[in-house]
Amino acid sequence: MINYILQVILFQVFFLAIYDFFLSKETFFTKNRWYLLSTPMLSFVLPLIKIPTLQKAVSQEFVIQLPEIVLNPDKVIQQTIQTTNIEKSINYVNILFWVGVAFFLILFLIKLMKIIRFIRENESIKKSDFILIFIPNQAKAFSFFNYIFLGEEVPKQQQEKVIQHELVHSQQKHSIDLLFFEILKIAMWFNPMIYFYQKRITLVHEYISDAVVAKSETKESYINSLLSSFFQVENIEFVNQFYKKSLIKKRIIMMKKNQSKTVNQLKYLVLLPVLLSMLFYSSCADENLITKEKHESVKQQKVRYFQIGDNPMRETKMDEESYLDIYFGIKEPEWPEITYNDLSFEEAEEFEIQMNKIKSSDSDFSNSITLKVYQRNEGRRVLASIIDMEKMKSLREKVTTETEEVSFMKIDRAPTFSGCEAGDKKCFSLMIQKHFVKNFDANLPKTLGLDPGKKRVFIAFKIDKEGNVIDVKVRAPHQKIQDEVISVMNSLPKMVPGENDGKVVAVKYSIPFTIIVA
Length: 518
Description:
Distance between the termini: 16 Å
Helix content: 40-55%
Largest sheet: 6 strands, mixed
Number of helices: 15
């Protein structure tokens, strides 16, 4: 949601920049009015439009899993992700947002009630297309829909001109424009661009009324009447005021200008490349973040196991629960395939774990298995292991003694971390975690502008026959995090190499590593 709001504000900045630099000085007042009304709405719609692109599934890397490392900004390592404390904690941002909404809504209602009180308590004259409200002991002049409010202190010789001016506002429904921005101010009170929009459209309204009324007399006469007038101002943003000192100079400058040339309307075409750029940007925004928000409600269910040989598919309900169902067979199922980026965080985590298990089960035979994700008709996702029987057959014929690398889980004696007993796998994992606590710069993620939440990092490395840590590979949400993790892994001390069948062997590992960005 934060990502969406930031895009909305960014797009409004660009739209207003185009208006200020290219359009604001033109006399196409009606077109400018519609520009200022349409572009805020476009800014809300554009981030939701995604241009379809071909996406690749996650790359198939050879990894073997160790217990997960979870690192929060205070450098606390856990064996499991403690999500409940985060999710159930008080969301002060939400509280602040709704307090702001309530405040501006109350402010709006107070001002609306003030207008209603003017209507009810003061003398009114009903005309054919408007209602004139006289306000005693005041020199104010403003309009709201078909109500024109006129202070009794306004000189008689100026009243007719004021009414003509305000009648243009009433006939062209300018109050609807101002109410539209008032509603936006309530919903997005923290967005300064809404206030800028409202100021600009208020000025455009005055340009429109001035242009219409000035046709009935010379511009010089109308300008002189503006300069010689003095009116009080009503502090209500969503009414059209005849006299506002801060706008008088701009109104006079615009009335003195010649009509803009028709060819100048081509300036509106500047909007086209900007719109295309915005569409490109929103479509290429962090797809993982959008997908996570889209599927954050996914829940664990009983696993359904599907298997296809040459016979029809079989379905078996299992006791354990998971986020993905499991399919195992030699044929691809008929469900539609989905990409890795379409998965929720929990589903992606299960995908990674299953991939690691497949890769670690046999470093040769894993090449005959393709891991894909499908979506069943009722919406449940399925993790499918597709077996290539031709590859399987050729692998069976290979001599299995070609490599001396073995899995961490299958090895007779695992590599030993300094200070641990020989082959102690649990101690090895614990020492790796402690190494991260000591050496990983936990403040780094805070400086990278990452959105709050869990950031997944996957690490693969090998301990060779001499006990050295080599072939470190890292996938991370930011290049600097990737570099930091590689640096930490390369600083691991030399190990006692592993043994299998009495021979020293190289061993491959993988570590799922989660950083919690506050």
